[in-house]
């Protein structure tokens, strides 16, 4: 399993599945690091706390 954002491997239990919706209406699910990607700082992620 790899993160769809930073393209790094995700350890079991550290994944977070996020539903995505494309413009054509076809949805999908991406797998991201839970709480944000901390593996690479190339793409800093800022999740609003408490959401
Ligand atoms: Zn990631």
Give the overall silhouette.
globular
Oligomer: single chain
Give the amount of beta strand, in percent. Answer: 25-35%
Main beta sheet: 2 strands, antiparallel
Number of structurally distinct domains: 1
Number of continuous helical runs: 0
Strand order of the largest sheet: 1-2
Tally of DSSP β-strands:
2
Structural class: mainly beta
Mean pLDDT: 81
Name the poorly predicted regions: none
Bound ligands: zinc ion
The helical percent reads under 10%
Terminus-to-terminus distance: 25 Å
Q: C-alpha Rg, in Å?
A: 12 Å
Question: Can you characterise this structure?
Answer:
- There is one protein chain.
- Strands 1-2 form a two-stranded antiparallel sheet.
- It has no helices and two strands.
- It has one domain.
- The chain is mainly β and 51 residues long.
- The structure holds zinc ion (ZN).
- Zinc ion (ZN) is lined by residues 3, 5-6, 8, 32-33, 37, 39.
Please sum up the structure shown.
With 51 residues, this protein is mainly beta. The chain has strands at residues 15-21, 27-33.
Chain-wise SSE layout:
Layout: E1 15-21, E2 27-33
Antiparallel strand pairs: 1-2
The protein binds zinc ion (ZN).
Descriptive keywords:
about 50 residues, binds zinc ion, about 25% strand, mainly beta, 2 strands, globular, single chain, two-stranded antiparallel sheet
